[in-house]
Amino acid sequence: MEGQNKKMIIRNCLVIRVLILFQIFSFFLLIIFPQIIQSEEEKSFTRQRSGQVIFTPHERSDSEPQQVHISLVGKDHMRVSWVTEDKNARSVVEYGTKQGGEYEAKAKGYHTSYNYFMYQSGKIHHVVIGPLKPNTNYFYRCGGLGPEFSFKTPPLNFPIEFVVVGDLGQTEWTTSTLKHVNSKDYDVFLLPGDLSYSDTQQPLWDSFGRLVEPYASRRPWMTTEGNHEIEILPVTEPTGFKAYNARWPNPHKESGSNSNLYYSFELAGTHIVMLGSYADFDDESEQYTWLVDDLAKVDRKKTPWVVVLLHAPWYNTNEAHQGEGESMRKSMEGLLYEARVDLVFAGHVHAYERFTRVYNNNEDPCGPMYVTIGDGGNREGLALSYKKPVSPLSLYREASFGHGRLRIVNETHAHWSWHRNNDNDAFVADGVWIQSLSSFKECWNTQHHNHVHHEEL
Ligand SMILES: [Fe+2]
C-alpha cells in the first residue's frame, strides 16, 4: 500500500511539474507572439499598423497614490480608486469644495490586491465618498499624501454630455484621442470595453492607469468589459477578469446585479445599461433575468433616455468580427426593443459606424440607433475592410481613430457627434440629432397594441 501511495505522489508531482512547465512555456509564447491569442476572425482581415504601446512610468514615491480614477456610485456618491506600492498606505480620501488642503470631509474604504502568474499587484484602494452636490467641483487627496486632485460631479438635470470611447489601449493614438476628449468639457466618460490591452502582461494595467489618470481622476469613467479584459491563462487563471474586477469595480450591487460584468446606473434623466458581452446572456442566464428586471424598473418620466453599452456589436458591416455579437443579439434584442431603448453603443471593431434605428435587421422607427465606436486607439490598429454593397441600415462608416459625444439637451432631443483624431477639435466628422423614443407616441401605442394582442392569444 505504502509503495502504491509513493507511486501516486510521484506521479502527481510529475503532473504538476509538467503543468507548471506548460504554463511558463505558454506565458513566454504569449509575450513573443501576442497574435496567437487573436481569434481566427481577427487574423482574416488587414489592419493598418497602429502606434506602439507607450509604457507610462511610475514617477511618484511608493507610498504616494498612482493610477487615480473615479466612478459613479448611486445618485450622489463617487468611488475613488488608486494604487500604492506601499502596503501600509491607508485607504482614506479627504475631500471638499475648497482647494489647497482644507478638506471638509473624510471617508474610509477598503483595499484589495491580486497575484497573476509571477506578478503581484500593488495595494489597490477603493473609497466611496459622498453625498456630493451635483455640478460641483471637489478637491481631494488619497491616502493622506501626494498630489491634490479635483473632479466635477455631473449635473442633476439636462443638459448632460457623455464622451463615448471604446477599445482605448495605450498608444500615441490613445494619447491623441484623450487630448481631443479633454479639449472640450463633458460630464461622464463611457467606455464599452477593451481598456488597457494588457493581454496578460499585468504591468501594462499599471501603465494604463497612469496614462489615463489625468483624465479619469477629473471625470467619472464608467466601463464595461471587452474581450481584452478576460485574460484567462490555462491552469493558473481559469476564471478571467482578475485585473479588471480588482482595478475597475462597477456599481453593480446598486443596480441589483451580482456581477461586475453588467450593471446599470442613472443620472440626469438618463438610464444607462452596461451589458456584458462576455458574461452568459442566454434566456436562462442571470444577466438576462437581471436585464428584464432592470428594464421593467425604468420610469421614462424620470429617465426619458435609455442608453445601452456593450462590447461586441450586434450590427456591424465591417469585415472584422462579423457575427461575434449575433447570439447575444438574438437573445436580448427583443428586450431592448420592447423597452424602447434609444441608443446602443458597441466597441470591438476598430472603426466608427452609425446605423439607423434597427430591429431584427430591419429599419424600425421604434428600434434603437446603433453605433460602433471601437476607434479609441489601441495597438492592433484599424479595421479597414467593409462589406459591399453598403447595407441601407448603415448610414456612416469610417476606419479612423476618434471619439464620440452624446449631448442630451433635454427630455426629447440629443445630439450625437463623432470626432476624428486628425481633424481639429472643433470639426465634427459625423453628427446627427436624435429624438428620444419616450416622446414617440406611435411607438408606445404599437407596444400596447402588441401587448393586448398577446393577451388575446
Ligand atoms: Fe474587443
Automatic annotation (TrEMBL):
Q: Which residues form the Purple acid phosphatase C-terminal domain?
A: 367-424
A Pfam family matched in the record: Metallophos_C
Q: Which SUPFAM superfamilies match?
A: Metallo-dependent phosphatases, Purple acid phosphatase, N-terminal domain
Q: Which domain of life is it from?
A: Eukaryota
The record's EC number reads 3.1.3.2
Checking Gene3D superfamilies in the record gives: 3.60.21.10, Purple acid phosphatase-like, N-terminal
Could you say which cofactors this protein requires? Fe cation; Zn(2+)
What does the UniProt keyword field contain? Glycoprotein, Hydrolase, Membrane, Signal, Transmembrane, Transmembrane helix, Zinc
- Family annotation (InterPro entries): Calcineurin-like_PHP (IPR004843), FN3_dom (IPR003961), Metallo-depent_PP-like (IPR029052), MPP_PAP (IPR041792), PAPs-like (IPR039331), PAPs_C (IPR025733), PAPs_N (IPR015914), Purple_acid_Pase-like_N (IPR008963)
Q: Which reaction does it catalyse?
A: a phosphate monoester + H2O = an alcohol + phosphate
Query: Which segments constitute the Purple acid phosphatase N-terminal domain?
Result: 65-153
EC class: hydrolase
Transmembrane segments in this chain: where? 14-37
Domain Calcineurin-like phosphoesterase: start-end pairs: 162-352
Q: Spell out the family assignment given in the record's similarity comment.
A: Belongs to the metallophosphoesterase superfamily. Purple acid phosphatase family.
The name this protein goes by in its record: Purple acid phosphatase
Please report the organism this UniProt entry assigns to the protein: Stylosanthes scabra
Taxonomic placement: Eukaryota, Viridiplantae, Streptophyta, Embryophyta, Tracheophyta
Gene for this chain: PAP22_3
